[in-house]
């Protein structure tokens, strides 16, 4: 198998995301984070905007024929509906965590073709952990999920569920794991442990076999999920709607996602059954 860490596309994306992380961490050390409010009342910082500029310039140089949809540069559906392939970018996923200075934020870059995420990169600037997933070969990139930290590079995959079941919960959005779902899981597993984290870290922890499940019932946008979905799927997992359908991107005027959960195929039937009973 080809060493993906030596592939020029991976190396180019790694440099782009490392450069973006450098500008984010520079601003992270400042007293003034340059916080403003968007039209939807969500926060944006100087780091979001600076990282966006770095990533946009890097992707345009790497693939000038592939357009970019970023949280910090939303394009009308009339224009982007013509795009069969595009990059979807969140320059700083977990802005609220960034503002809290708890370190739980990430950079997300996804390549989407005909609605499906075929490549995803997620990087955690405060820990220097990077995740890379390829679900469909593009420019001879091997299919699979990988993690790097410094010079260390390894393949990753989901684990088989076992006691205790580890459930990733959101640090800033929505309630913890519902008590009735926790009880439902305990009918098959003796222990259920909740682990709160921010941003796409939750999905990446599942992809690398540290956790088993994440349930999201609050609003997200396409740039929040596209990159982690590619990584999760490449690692053998699922990011799906309550009925088990994988998300598809750039297919609608709205960029908002519905409810979803992340798991492996073993846990998915139990979660979908719980959703049905809730309805």
Automatic annotation (TrEMBL):
Binding-site residues for Mg(2+) 2, renumbered to this chain: 90, 93, 224
* UniProt record, GO biological process: 3'-phosphoadenosine 5'-phosphosulfate metabolic process; sulfate assimilation
Q: Name one matching Pfam family.
A: Inositol_P
GO MF entries: 3'(2'),5'-bisphosphate nucleotidase activity; magnesium ion binding
Where is this protein chiefly located? membrane
Topology relative to the membrane: Peripheral membrane protein
Xref: CDD domains: CysQ
Catalyzed reaction equations: adenosine 3',5'-bisphosphate + H2O = AMP + phosphate
Write out the similarity annotation.
Belongs to the inositol monophosphatase superfamily. CysQ family.
Specify the protein name. 3'(2'),5'-bisphosphate nucleotidase CysQ
Q: Which organism is it from?
A: Marinomonas profundimaris
